[in-house]
Amino acid sequence: MPALLERKLIVVTGKGGAGKTTIATALGLLAAARGIHTIIAEVGEQDRLPRLFGLDSSQQGVETTLQDSLHSISIDSDVALLEWLQALGGRISGRLLATSSTFQYFAAAAPGAKELLSMVKVSELLRRRRGRGSAAPYDLVVLDAPATGHALAMIQSPATFGAIARVGPIAAQTGRVRALLEDPAHTGYVAVAQAAELGVTETFELQDGLLRQLGRDLDAVIANGVLPLRFTAAELARLEAAGARGADGEEVKRAAARAARAVHERARFQRNQLARLRRRGLAPITVPFRFEAELDRRALGEIARQLERKLT
Length: 312
What we know:
The protein is about 50% helix and about 15% strand. It is an alpha/beta fold. The protein has one domain: 3-Layer(aba) Sandwich (Rossmann fold). Strands 3-4-2-5-1-6-7-8 form an 8-stranded mixed sheet, sandwiched between helices. A hairpin with a 2-residue loop joins strand 3 (about 65) and strand 4. Helix 1 (about 20-35) packs across helix 12 and helix 6 (about 115-125) packs across helix 8 (about 170-180). The longest helix has 29 residues, at about 250-280. It is elongated, with a radius of gyration of 23 Å. The two termini are about 15 Å apart.
């Protein structure tokens, strides 16, 4: 089986707020540094990557060059469905179609249609010219997928919608997307989770869903925001003893001892959650917690280098 960055598509998902976009971007930076022409695809109304790189927001469906060998694109599932129906409708205007009751009915009645067409857009990136001035397609698509439940719906969409569309061009597209998602030589799946009870449980749900829907397992689990174990039990005891002996005006020492204990207990709890992943047969790759309000390109580059050491 090829290494993660040797695939054509990497799907990054996990519990909301776990740092999926951060990890997807770091993987994109790591791939681009190796000369792999990469595009990171955001789904929905997300358009965060250009701003992370100090660029203006891009238009939906339009590639933005972030740096050499690295691009981004934002895919809106409603727009993808509208474009497909407009292609079927010929000269019907997009505005008229979008406001019609027929469009609204179809969008609600066709299970998996929007999710499928988003995945079709993603798969087409592997055949699309990479940026301007190049006739070659992208080597790698990193999909910054929605949170676990919605991501599983996207992954399931070829089977869901394929039960309806058995012939015609949409059936052919459905088959191509399903084959791509099922092929371990071309697609890898990465779970991003914080080392917390709900995040780990949702990772198990993702693993079970992949096995049930595609017969696939997770290729990597990345535990984001892991705190270091800074103190031994003996060191904590000495800190707390020093705080307890403090005279008047020594409240700062007592507060510091309480803070040290709280952070230590949090770090220990995280280790327990990482152990849950290991008992499930998953080997989490840890990314340290960063004491920064917002991440910039420098911080993303450091995370990419941390992943490189652990992924290779």
